[in-house]
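Batch 3, record 17
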Amino acid sequence: MEVKTSSVMGFLGPFLILVLAFYFIPVILTVILSFTSMDYKLSWDFTGFTNFEHFLTQSLTYKVLLTTFVYVALTLIFNVGIAFLLALMTTYFTTHENTAMFFRAIWLLPRLTPVVVYCLLWMWIFEPTQYGLFNTILSLFGKSSSIDWFSSYPMGVIVFANGFIGASFGMVTFSSAIKSISRDYIWSAQVDGAGDWQIIKRIIIPMIKWEIMYIFIWQTLSLLNSYVYILILTDGGPLHETEVWSLYAYHKAFKYMEFGNGAALSLFLVIIGIIFTFISWKIFGFRKMMGQEVSR
Amino acid sequence: MRVLLDNITKIFGKVVAVNDLTLEVEDGKLVVLLGPSGCGKSTTLLMIAGIYRPTEGKIWFGDNVVNDLPPKDRKIGLVFQSYALYPHMTVFENIAFPLRLKRENKKEIDKKVKKISEFLEIGELLDRKPIQLSGGQQQRVAVARALVKSPDILLLDEPLSNLDAKLRVVMRTELKKMQMRLGITTIFVTHDQSEAMTVADKIAVIKNGVLQQYSSPDELYDIPKNLFVATFVGSPPMNIIEGSLSFKDGNLFFLNPDVRFELPEDMKVVLKQERNTEEVLFGVRPEDVNISYERSGSQDSTSWLVDMIEMMGRELLVTLSREKTMLKTIVDREHVPSIGEKVNVEFTGKVFLFDKYSGKNLLCEE
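Prediction for the assembled complex:
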């Protein structure tokens, strides 16, 4: 069947315009911006690689890089781990579907609450006085002095706050993936002599490898770019302890009004993201997976 | 290993899947659980496997009650209709899986996998992934995986249903041969009566979770206990005609407005049983109906109309009618009738009588 170019453009057009305006152009702008010294005056003064040289020579940059790495790694483990655990609990270990659904719905609730409210809750949980939830719990175990979580364990605070809300996404994906595994495989493995742990390790995980890869990459990319919770909870403090790369870029651009510098930092993040994605594809055997028919 | 199901009941929510089933499988025999889909035969198999727990009743393996034993400790091999070969493992890994779980040493595993795969003629496929195998090969791998740990009992859940018709006939013979060579107690679930008849030492016919009859294939065919078994076993199915019995001049007759058959001597016992003789079902297998073209008057059998002729290969399936009564018969191809022709009918084999309401075979002792 022959398709007219004009009708193709007619159907694709509206969406293409949206993609162009909100995805493609910002990337181009970021690239261009990163080679200017744009500040609050918003003038396009091209300065070549000055911005990059600038942040490469600052020691804070390396501290931020390390912080980002630690933050992303810890949150990812927490996030994907809890998601997988929740998915297992609500599928493999729960035969009663309504109970499982109720439980999953509860874990999705934070997604519906405004970010500020969610952060406020965590502020109460980590409240440094005796009225904070964690401190109250500690005092129940006989610990008299309160812990100032925000200054003693700032990294823990942001990992917890981000990890808990992030887990629900993986939970939903994993639980539907586990449920789509034919019961025959599980039963067969049981008869073959596998216990729960063996079934999880040798049957379930290999069979949902694809979904694990997807969640792993998705969560990494979004964690690299997310700073809202951190901004509200710690604002990068104390003393840059929780200053991750995207927050660093945000601060540069919107706190110090160094848009050129901020753009350069963002561009760096984009490149890290792309490199990471390719490495993950290699690790998970993306090509092989695309080649094989998905059979369950 | 002898398997005994002792008054087994399984209830899912409000549905009674298996109802008070008692069944003994003798050591070394192949028993088929036969019934239409949803009759509870697979549920029964899964209870024997330990995947479902019976709501009531006991399951015995030899001298032990195994109700509380998890599947992995039951020493069973299980083959599913879907084969359930793990797609991320090679054939070798699939077959070796039960042994690896038992933490047997590598050499021993290699030896056992090699032996069983040679036995089942899949030695060359060990490096392949399940997706690269044909249906028949997948089935063999599934059987190999079930047998490699030398189980006491082999459970087969519709193992042939995913194969094409030709292969199915070949594989069922092979399965039977293999079972006889190994002498392993086997429980085989199927909805296909001809498959059941060919492989089974004994067949348990199940309907709506209730055992209808448990006997050898011959007995099932010759002496069906009720209407369900009579019509489920045998292909094409038995002819069933509604009517009543009447006794006249020392002879027993079956009659309805369209037909009148004289029944054989031995059926007179029915009258002594003080059973309902007004509403009965008359049954005769198509292969026991003979047609002839001359007017003989020996039976009240004249003038049936040839309605339809279906080609079945070696024979023809001919549908006859007389007013509202229909009768199917198998005719060999030397005497092909033509549609619209009038023929006479004679019963050469056994005929059956069933109670219209209970479906019971009136000739069976209680």
